[in-house]
Structure formats: structure tokens, C-alpha cells
Amino acid sequence: MKRYLKLVNFEIGRFMKIYLVLIGITILSQLIGVIVMAKNYVANANEVIFVDSLPLEQFIEQYGEMGMMDVVGSIWFIGPIALCAAAFIFYIFFIWYRDWVGKNTFIYRLLMLPTSRLNILLSKATAIFIMVFGLVSVQLILLPIESMLLKWNVPFDFRIDMTVSEIINNNSYLFILIPDSFIQFIINYGIGFMVVFILFTAILFERSFRWKGALLGIIYCAIASIIFLAPLIYEIGFEASFFYTEEIFVIEIILGILVTAMSIWLSKLLLNKKVTV
Amino acid sequence: MNVNLNKREPVYLQVIRHFKEQIATKRLEPGQEIPSRRELANQLKINPNTAQRAYKEMEEQGLIYTEGNSPSKITKDEKVLGAVREELIGQAIDSFIAAIRPIDVPLDEVVGLIQEKYKGDKA
Amino acid sequence: MIEAKELKKRFGRKQILNGVSFTANKGEITCLIGINGVGKTTILKGIMNLTPMDSGQILIDGEKMSKDMYEKITFIPDAITMIPTMTIAEAMQFMQDYYKSWNQARATELLRFFKLKQEEKISSLSKGNTAKVNLLLGLALDVDYLLMDEPFSGIDIFSREQIADVFTSHLVEDRGVVITTHEINDIEHLIDKVVLLDNGVVLKEFRTEEMREDEGKSVVDVMREVYRG
């Protein structure tokens, strides 16, 4: 356990620089985005109202009011989130391959540590989870700050004020990242973590059997997906619904746990018996 | 300590010969402490196990002795020391004769030449 | 004692190891010799469970490899097994964090012996010094067995001499050492035992002093006989 925690800390430390840069980009882009968008909106309003002498009501009718939903739909806001998402998808692979590629033989050291090799896998997964949650928390903290910035920059008459939960509920991708119920949260992130473990298993297949392993890895991903989606595939295949929503929910949770456990078990087997440096 | 080691002869024998030469030439005095096997291995760049074997052999031949935990020392036994000297002289003469005999030089001439050279070298 | 029995390993179509058996004793230096690509490194990785063997058995003091064995046997590959952005001090701290067998006093001694500065970054070291740090990280573990892959290749002559000095010092004393090399000349007098490999099999296994004593042959003489004959 102590070594596992040390490994988690170690893995996070190794990614810290990139991680901080990602957080920095997110903060800067979103805050600058709010200001730029607000200024543009106000500038436009001034021009239309004072130069073109359009009444305020008509301006609002024509251009709409400004609110956080405009901000969260913009590239300033989505851009860094997409960047972070891409970085973490890349990191799922990078966290393994950086120890193998080129002259770097750090994987030798990791595999020769006097600790269960499963700890290496779990620590890498944990590092990813912690950092993803970190990013989500940053986003949660940023939302009220951004609302406030908007208030300072756009006069009352031109804006729609929204609470943080209103902002989230009005935006489909934010709602995936930050669901409003605990169960939804478990579902979203449970699926996310399951995918991480499936991909880890695929990577370890590749690292064990190289080209053949890459193929096995892809096949494994397909099998895992089919198992997990089996009830839905079944229903679509028969064009009927056999289960109540609650039943589907329970079955999916069980299948999710099953697929995750299977992935971890296979990864452990590969790490102990088959992995090749 | 600097020794040129030959790669075809057992290293432990070469080490023993080296010690005998040192003893015969008085560079190692009777009763003088000798390096530990580890130090010797390090000085000669040889395997410590080989150094160990050389010391064991020398101990058996009475060339060195060890009292308790103190470092090994060169023997003070006059008989052994004399034998070492004789052995080295014998070996040197043998190899000299082996080299000179094929040239077929009369013994008197050889002895004369030796006397001349030997004295000359010393002076 | 490290026992390798009938090790077989195939990479794709190439049978790298085809029934390799040998033993290496504690307190002795055993040298695996063979041209490059003959599978020497694969054998060491096999012993450490870094590359699985297709068949065969490896025992260390009669036991199979397990995670706890990494406190008893260690492997020093030909490239450094640390993150290049770490300083030497950080690398040593890493080792201390994970290994019970890490001996800090010995590590400090090795730093002095190799004249290394611990605040230096690994990536900024010369080839020779990188090799020394690599060696240090392995040697400072209180393990019974040390496996070293080509410790003398690709470094300058002075570093080579320093590394050779390690073998005759107490830093290696009483441990079982297995080294691989394709260049025996510098270290002929250092090794106890030789295992000659070719085409995936052991061609000859012999003790160097016995070979000199019984047949008057140097290691290179035997190699010439075995590889050319």
C-alpha cells in the first residue's frame, strides 16, 4: 500500500509540468474568452444603439442578451476542455509507452521494483483519475468566477444571469463532465475508468506480443465493448425493449464491474507472465 | 606492486612466483606484513578468489603465516627462505642453460662471459 | 546459485535461445560470452522476469523468481534505468524509497569512488559517468546476485578501468555476479567462470583457472577453438 501510494505520487509528479500547463491554458483561455466576448458584445451594442440609433429593446430582440451559455458554447471555453480531453486520451498511452520507447529503459526499473506489478498498473490508473478530477474541479471553480467577470463587463440590461447549476444543465458536454446527481456522476466516470482499464489491457497486450498483441488488444477492446453493451445490442437487435430502465441500469453496473475486473485481472496476468521489455 | 600477468598460466601460480621473487630479492622482508587478499586482488586486478587461492597455497608451502586475526606475514623460517632463494636461482639457471645450450658454446667460454658481464653489471 | 535450465526463447522466426543451461555461483564472477545478438541480454532479462521464456526453468538459490526476489537479485542493463531528468540524488532517493536492500552508506561510498556529484542531472552526464551511475544504483543494493549487461561497452578507457576496479573491491565481495560481454580481453583475470554461447546454445562452460592449469589455455584460446573449430 505504501509503495502504491508512492508510485501514484511519483506518476503524478512526472506529468505535473504538462498538467499545470493544461490547467494554465484552461484558466487563461476561459477568462480571456469571457472578457473578449463581453467587450465585443458591449462594443457591438454601443455601435448599434448609439450609431445606428436602435432602441435597446429592439437590439435585444435582434441580437439577444449575453449570458454564460454564450461563453460556454464558444471556442474560448470548449477549446481548452477539448485540449485537456485530447491530452488525457494521449496520456493513457503515453503513461506506458514513455517508459519503453527510445533509450529510456525506466520500465526495467518499474518492473524490477519489489512490489506487485499490479501496483504499477493501479498507480498509473489512479494518477489519471486524480488528475482528471483535478481538472473537473478547476472547471467547477472557474464557472462562478467567469459568471462574475461577465457581470462586471456586461450591463444588467443586456445580460441573463445564471447559477452554476443552470449553466451546467444548459450545456450537454458540461453536463457529462459535471452531472447533477451522484448516480449520474458514478455512471459517467465509472464508464470512463472502465475504458481506461480496457485500454491499459490493450496496451499491455501490445507490449507483450508486439504486432500480434496490437491485434489482440483491438480484439479485446471489441469484446469488452460487446459485453458491456450486450443488453443494448440485444434490444436494438430485436427492436424491442425487454428491460425496464432500472433493470438496464443494474445490469450495466454489473457488466461494467465485470469488464473492469476482467481487464485488471488480464492486465495483471500479462504484467506478471508475458510483458516483454 | 606491478606484475605482468600471463593469460595462459594459472594466475595463482603467477602470484606465488611474484611473491617468491619479492622474497628472494629482499623486497619483502621476513616477518613483513603482506596485503590482504582483497588489497592484493585490487592491486593486481585479479579475481579475489584467485588471490585467496594463492594465499592458501603459500600458507601451505610455509611462505606466509597468519596469527589469529592479524594480517598474514612473510615467514621467518630460514629453511623456507633459503629454499625459495635456491628455487629461483635454479629456475633462472635452467632457463639460461635452455637458451644457451643450442648455441653450442664451450662451458669455459660461457663461465668467462658470465663473470665478465656479471661484474660489469654490478659496477 | 543461479540455475538456468533448458531456456528456450523465440522472437518471431528467430530461435534466440535453444535450450540454454548453465549455473552461476555466489561469490564468483561468471561471464556470458558470445557475439552480439546471440541472446546474452535475453538470458539476463529472462532471469529477471523482464522477458518471458517460452520454456525452461530459472532458479535462484532453488527458488523461482517473485517480487520479493528483487531484493535479492538485481539487473544492471546496458542503459541507465532511471528518468534522465532526475539528478543523481533523486535517483538514489527513488531507490531508497522502494528497496529495503538499498544501502545508503555504500551508495555514498560509490559516489566518492566514481567521483560523481549527486546534484548533477543524469541527462547531463557523459557516457562513462552515466554508466557509473547505472552501476551505482545496482551495486548499492545489498543483493546476493548482480546481473550486468555489457558493463564495459561503449565507454572510455578510464571509466572502464574504474569499473573493473569495482570487481576486485569489497563492493562486489561475496556476491554472485553474472556479466555479459563480447570483449573479454580487459577482464580475463577478473572472472571465475566462462559460459560460451552461440546459436542459442551453450558451447562450453568452464572455469578460467582450471583451464589455465589443466590445459594451459587462456579464455581467448578456448574461444578461438570453440568458435573457429
From TrEMBL, chain A:
The chain crosses the membrane at residues 20-38, 75-97, 118-142, 182-205, 217-236, 248-271. This is Uncharacterized protein. Keywords: Membrane, Transmembrane, Transmembrane helix. The lineage of its organism: Bacteria, Bacillati, Bacillota, Bacilli, Bacillales. It comes from Oceanobacillus arenosus.
From TrEMBL, chain B:
The keyword rRNA-binding does not apply. Residues 9-77 form the HTH gntR-type domain. It comes from the Bacteria. InterPro entries: Tscrpt_reg_HTH_GntR, WH-like_DNA-bd_sf, WH_DNA-bd_sf. The keyword Transcription applies. It holds the Pfam family GntR. Keywords: DNA-binding, Transcription, Transcription regulation. GO terms for molecular function: DNA binding; DNA-binding transcription factor activity. Transmembrane segments: none annotated. PANTHER family: GNTR-FAMILY TRANSCRIPTIONAL REGULATOR, HTH-TYPE TRANSCRIPTIONAL REPRESSOR YTRA. This is GntR family transcriptional regulator.
From TrEMBL, chain C:
Residues 2-224 form the ABC transporter domain. It comes from the Bacteria. One of its GO terms (molecular function) is ATP hydrolysis activity. The keyword ATP-binding applies. The keyword Iron does not apply. It holds the Pfam family ABC_tran. InterPro entries: AAA+_ATPase, ABC_transporter-like_ATP-bd, ABC_Transporter_VariousFunc, P-loop_NTPase. Keywords: ATP-binding, Nucleotide-binding, Transport. PROSITE patterns: ABC_TRANSPORTER_2 (PS50893). PANTHER family: ABC TRANSPORTER ATP-BINDING PROTEIN ALBC-RELATED (PTHR42939). This is ABC transporter ATP-binding protein.
